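A quick aside before the break. I want you to see a complete sequence-to-structure record at least once, exactly as it would be stored in a machine-readable document. Don't worry about memorizing anything.
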Amino acid sequence: MELNKFVATKARPLPVIIMADTSGSMGIEGKIEALNSALKDMITSFSTEGRMRAEIHLTVVTFGGSAKTHLKMIPAHQIEHVDTLVADGGTPLGKACDLVRGIIEDKELIPSRAYRPVIILASDGYPTDAYQASFTKLLESDRAKKATRFALSIGADADNELLKSFGNDLEAPLFYAKNASEISRFFRAVTMSVSNHSRSQKPNDVMTLDYVVEELADDDLDIPL
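That is the input. The structure line, written in tokens, reads:
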């Protein structure tokens, strides 16, 4: 075969969507600082990943006082700066769900050739808006059904039943962070898992965190399942 007939295969996007609670309660006990540090480390790690088969794309939606797209969907290696997360206001989860549903259904942001998305929801409290309809619409959307979804319960006051219904890993529907340091440990596990997944032979398979948890020492990752 002639050399000019070979066409380089372009890496397919592997979308990662972070839904981060930035309500006022996240401003105590070092939680928002831990979340900022974890997000920074995640971006640094993702930006150095190879892009032979999968290219990690990242977006961050925050909900604290109001819900907004804090970081628009972008290839991780192109991220130059992310504004610091600030804790303030209530917990408008419903509005955040509307934003995420709009992102995940947007075929310009996430084209049909993209690998199965990963959605991470992290929260330390109960929603303060009428979230139920928006939450249900997100989970019942075709693309969210196919996505790998993880939920992190932060502290002692999170709505664990709601968060558990968000996660779709049957073996670990909900992870817990009892303090700020465990927020960082959870996001490190997610980062390692996504990075390993992007290098795998089948990036479109459902991703789990189980093997990542097993690889880390007990004192390095203390997340009760």
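Two observations worth writing down. Residues 20-215 form a domain with the Rossmann fold fold (CATH 3.40.50.410). The two ends are 53 Å apart (CA to CA). We'll return to this after the break.
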